[in-house]
């Protein structure tokens, strides 16, 4: 029978890295969702600038990434607009004339910005997560 020695320094270092990852995973998962929410915000903002013809108030500045929260065992993040007229641009509205008559002049169709951006985000989501996971694993 042949005798051989096993060098377990690398295995121990890898095991320590895995233990460290498990310990810090909640923080890294939260950071991962924050960064992916930032990507989603950029996509929504790009769609808004393509769709909305006029700069209506502070609409573009009001598109934000929300906080990351945990529901069940899933991490979630949302992108929203806190502008008071955002729902009018999103879903459409009635156009009404001035005071005495308040005659209805027509209907302005909504741009459905968040719906369109949501479809693009769903298509790109795996690439976004792969990119962010690579950044996390690069740190280890």
Secondary-structure blueprint:
Elements: H1 9-51, E1 63-65, E2 69-71, E3 74-76, E4 79-81, H2 86-91, E5 92-96, E6 104-109, H3 113-139
Antiparallel strand pairs: 1-4, 2-3, 5-6
Helix pairs in contact: 1-3
Ends distance:
39 Å
Total number of helices: 3
Work out the number of β strands: 6
Class from secondary-structure proportions: alpha+beta
Oligomer: single chain
InterPro entries: HK97-gp10_tail
Organism: Brevibacillus formosus
Protein name: HK97 gp10 family phage protein
Short description:
InterPro entries: HK97-gp10_tail. The chain has 140 residues and is an alpha+beta fold.
Q: How is this structure best described in words?
A:
- The protein is an alpha+beta fold.
- The chain has one domain.
- It contains 3 helices and 6 strands, in the order αββββαββα.
- The protein has a two-stranded antiparallel sheet. Strands 2-3 form a two-stranded antiparallel sheet.
- A hairpin with a 2-residue loop joins strand 2 and strand 3.
- The radius of gyration is 24 Å and the shape is elongated.
- It starts with 8 loop residues before the first helix and ends with a helix.
- This is HK97 gp10 family phage protein.
